[in-house]
Amino acid sequence: MAAFMGETASKMVGGSYIAQGSQNISSLNAQISELVEKRKLPAKKFSDQQIEFALNHLSLMDSNNFSGNAGVGEREGRCLSSMVHRRNFGFCHGIGRSGDITEVQPKAAGSSLLVKICKDMSLDAIRIAGVKAVVLSQLVRADILYLPFWGHVKFQLLKMAAFMGETASKMVGGSYIAQGSQNISSLNAQISELVEKRKLPAKKFSDQQIEFALNHLSLMDSNNFSGNAGVGEREGRCLSSMVHRRNFGFCHGIGRSGDITEVQPKAAGSSLLVKICKDMSLDAIRIAGVKGCSDCVLLPVATGMALSLCMMTLRESRPKARFVIFLRIDQKSCIKSILTAGFEPIVINGKLEGDELRTDLVALRSQMERSDSESILCVMSTTSCFAPRVPDNLPEIGKLCSEFNIPHVVNNAYGLQSTKCAHLLSQTYRLKYRLDAFVQSTDKNFLVPVGGSIVVSFDSFLTSKLAKMYPGRASMSPILDLFITLLSVGAEGFQKLLLQRRNLFAQLQNELRSVSELYGERLLETPHNDISMAISLNCYRSSTSENVTKLGSMLFTRFVSGARVVSCSNTKQIGRTEFKGFGSHCDDYQCDYLTAAAGLGIEEEDIHLFVKRLKSVLSKKENIS
Asked: How far is CA 150 from the centre of its chain?
């Protein structure tokens, strides 16, 4: 904090005042250092300001908050809404990695450190509570599932009469009060239209307008009632006023222990917010180009866990099922979603056509013909993926699933931003082929912090069953982020973002083609993938796997995140299945390669910085090999 403690600052304010402020900051630094060192709950509580000081410093350690960072991956911790970014103090990368929730997230050093400190404090609090000899704990979000519901609750905003009446007019002046009243009435009309039309608003709301709506909605929850006497075990209380503010007073969650689709009596505002958010989400999905979707479920879990929940829901109607036919994509979370749900994957490798890895329909049919269909829970296909893999042929897969009466679940993780993925989903629906549900991430498609997903169906069979299997209430935290973001961008803004991404994809592709040719490599031809692309790394053919992946490390230390270097010699064991060439989506791809993605939210500056730093690294290839 030298800028605020130096000689110039002393002259501007006074040396003694600056010294006193410096002493306070130094004291707080010492407190935080002691917290980290002793790994215990502090004896005295921190003030809100002290907590914010610590959080701000920790969040600056996450790559999404680096000055000059060039993010070219599909998940870069971007937030479309500055309000959502503030709400989460800039912690947008989540925690862990797809293979292990306890593993440090390379893009999120601050988040990872925060979790470790929180884990130690939690253990200490458990010991203080009287549980002795505790040596290990696992910090995992308890709010595992979030399921909204349809309904017809009418929303009436407060009239703000206290600020619009005769006395107020006398105090300030009738014309000024009238003008202010007109602004509030206009906003009331906008919100009424939002509720009535059940669509994403055409024009974005300002942060102030969103906060106005949130404050009114939260006042409809019992924990914010004036004079409320709560005598239950769960009354929406927050020990920290800062946590209460972070959540805008929405502390009750949604649903009831018997049915997640029921309105929570203690949380009318929360329940209504979820209904509006669900309607806006469906409309945004239609705007992205997916036609025919009729129902969705919003979940406070990322894509992998959402896929697991889909499979657990399908188990009820297919009790003899033991296997999931898995159209191979080398991402641990996809494979582990099958294992977590209690099933075994039957892996179908992709078929190499040119540079592209496409769906092997012959192998898929063969597997279906020799399997007892009742033993197969579903086929899991994928749309959005890393090049050189391309989206699966959903219509033909759906046709086979219809023929063999096998459910079809699609991992559409970041596919809403792709016109090709949207077309494949819509075409499968139009041809009336089987597609039970498709799952997408909220962070990748709507630029909110990691932790939410949307399960969508073309009828309500699977989504309604999934909604009713949740035991207890659910958290609304990720849905609150989505609600804020959708209002912050509006329909016009969302369409603009989709178009901007498509244009920047073409630019990144052209830039990578030029760079690859400059260094004797080539851009792999993957025309069916309109998000990710890859360049060959033939110059490292004689190198070890470690030398090839060192290129990725060199890029990361130069503040390039999201680029992936794949060595085709890797082998990975996940569960009981061994994957040869792990990372390349097949056993023996033709070359090592580097991928980059033009994900939603990427900017021209990201591309310029990435290309510049990639050239710098490739020019040092002799030092790598």
From this structure: 23
Q: Look up the pTM and report it.
A: 0.85
Please compute Rg for the chain using Cα positions. 26
Maximum C-alpha span of the chain: 85
From residue 602, alpha-carbon distances to 62, 78, 109, 204, 307 in Å are 17, 9, 22, 20, 27
Do residues 255 and 300 lie in contact, with contact meaning Cβ atoms separated by under 8 Å?
A: no
Mean pLDDT in residue range 244-265: 77
What are the residues facing 376 on neighbouring strands?
323
Mean pLDDT of the residues in the chain: 83
Could you give the CA distance from residue 437 to residue 310 in angstroms, rounded to a whole number? Answer: 8
12-51 pLDDT, tens digit per residue, is: 455 554 454 556 667 777 887 787 778 788 888 887 767 8
Expressed in percent and rounded to 5, the helix, strand and coil fractions of the chain are 50, 10, 40
Q: Which long-range contacts (CB under 8 A, 24 or more apart) does 394-397 make?
A: 394/424, 394/425, 394/427, 394/428, 394/433, 394/435, 395/424, 395/427, 395/428, 395/431, 395/433, 396/359, 396/361, 397/327, 397/359, 397/361, 397/364
Residue located via tokens 């862990």: 96
Per-residue HEC secondary structure of 17-49 comes to HHHHHHHHHHHHHHHHHHHHHHCCCCCCCCCHH
Return the HEC string of 163-202.
HCCHHHHHHHCHHHHHHHHHHHHHHHHHHHHHHHHCCCCC
Which residues is 97 bridged to in the sheet?
Answer: 100
Cα–Cα distance measured from residue 20 to residue 10, given in angstroms and rounded to the nearest whole number: 11
Q: Where are the alpha helices (DSSP H) in 293-378?
A: 303-315, 332-340, 361-370
- Given pLDDT bands bounded at 50, 70 and 90, which one contains residue 143? very low
* pLDDT classification of 166: cutoffs 50, 70, 90: low
In angstroms, what CA-CA distances link 50 with 34, 88, 108? 14, 16, 22
3-state secondary structure of 389: strand
Q: Which of 225, 227, 216 is nearest to 270 (CA)?
A: 216
According to DSSP, residue 254 is labeled: B
For 568, the token pair is: 């085709």
Q: What's the angle, vertex CA 123, arms to CA 242 and CA 99, rounded to 5?
A: 90
CA pair distance 254, 149, nearest whole angstrom = 10
Cβ–Cβ < 8 Å for 450, 92: yes
Residue 112 has pLDDT above 70, yes or no: yes
- The CA–CA distances, whole Å, from 296 to 105, 161, 196, 259, 594 equal 30, 38, 19, 17, 35
Of 209-213, 216-220, 490-494, 509-513, the range with the lowest mean pLDDT is 216-220
- What is the tens place of the pLDDT at every residue in 168-218? 455 555 665 566 667 767 777 888 888 888 899 999 998 878 888 888 788
